[in-house]
From TrEMBL:
Residues 316-457 form the SIS domain. Gene3D superfamilies: Glucose-6-phosphate isomerase like protein, domain 1, Winged helix-like DNA-binding domain superfamily/Winged helix DNA-binding domain. Residues 61-71 have a biased composition (Pro residues). GO terms for biological process: carbohydrate derivative metabolic process. The keyword Transcription regulation applies. This is RpiR family transcriptional regulator.
Amino acid sequence: MTVMLSVELREDRSGNRYLGAPVPTSVMAPWRQTFRAQVGEQRSALLEDHKRTRDGDVGSPPDPGSPPDPGSSPDVGPEHHITLVTPPELEQLSALPQQLPEALEVELIGLGTVQDGEAESWFVVVESDQAQQLRRQLDLGPHTLHVTVGFASQDIHHLPKDRSALVAAQPGSGAALSAQTTQAAPPEAPATSQAGPNSPALNSSVRVRISSGLGSLQPSEQRVARFALEEPERVVESTAQELADLIGVSRTTVVRTCRSLGCTGYPQFRVALAREAPAAGEPEQRETGLRAEARHIVEGLHHVFDAVRDEEAQQLVDRIARAHRVLVVANGQSAPCAMDLSLRLTAAGRPAEFLADALAQQVAVRLLGEQDLCLAISSSGVNDITLRTLQAARESAAHLMLITSQEESPAAELADSSLMLVPPPSSFLESLQELSRLHYTLAVEALAQQVRLRVGAAAQQAVDVLAENIID
């Protein structure tokens, strides 16, 4: 699909200025339809909502060179654009040309996606000789172009968004069309990628699907598929990047292979293999019963603080004790631990707050001052709601401390400091079946006890209150 788009100096919600080309909702409609076919209605709505939160909604921009029609109503929908010159690049330019081109011819190639851990980004790959020529005039190098459709956790900027990431391409190409009047048919997606989570294709054995689909894969994809057949346990225990490094292919190839085999991405492919892992060999024999289960759980808690240096732990205790105000934030599975931590700290003589409402968290963290502490708990570091709270906390002057089990995550990047807890050793399948926050409960107990010892006499007030409420 080839369209003509206007070029303008734009500004995002954070005040960053960039050179971009707005894309009308009428042009994006068929691509959004293909996007929904790829990932499903419910998930696509969530990913688009993340983008809408960042970029907002707009009316469809007018056709370049055409007078506005007073009687027409704008085609309102999610804001879409192509970034021609990024904010950092724009800051480095001494000046923009006195007259920008009125319109650029761009070609929308196909729907693509990239993943990095839990982060996932969907976009339309774009190519334009005129756009690259404009960049050369500004003494800038080549730049891959795309239109973001939606993303999970956060958008991805460090992975290539070019033809190598395509999962659904449009059939054929047409002449240049007016951006205001373009009404193209939806691009066709590969049939194997449209399988939903309950389709017969996905309910069949993943190993059978790999074997039967091997011949239709590209050579690099076949290497991934064969490795999954020969070493399923290693695939299950590897991230997409680890698997790519192990096989000697790109991460994009790993993700593309999974989609070619009917999965929506690597996480789903990994879970499907994990479910079949017990059938590949003898199941592990383990003592059963409540006492045996308790011993098994406790054995996994011995190394919770192995990644924490003594000085790091002491610094956290000191920060909690000295802070004017302590606000504990968490969501999802981590929320009970956060509430428990606030109660334990208060009982230890160091009053702390916990707000269960996500919006209230975002308001409260913005009000924190330089002497305050925001203490966040996120095991994965990718919870969307928690990330929004942490982003809001960055706008305050308070110190942001994160308790997590992932050293490299979006949450860890936002935090001023982190306390790394080592989760109990388990396989990938066990981590899905036996999701536990017991090691966080242990950390809460230990941390509250250290704070109690630190604040000393103040903790006696809590003891007095408890004594007054004991009934014979």
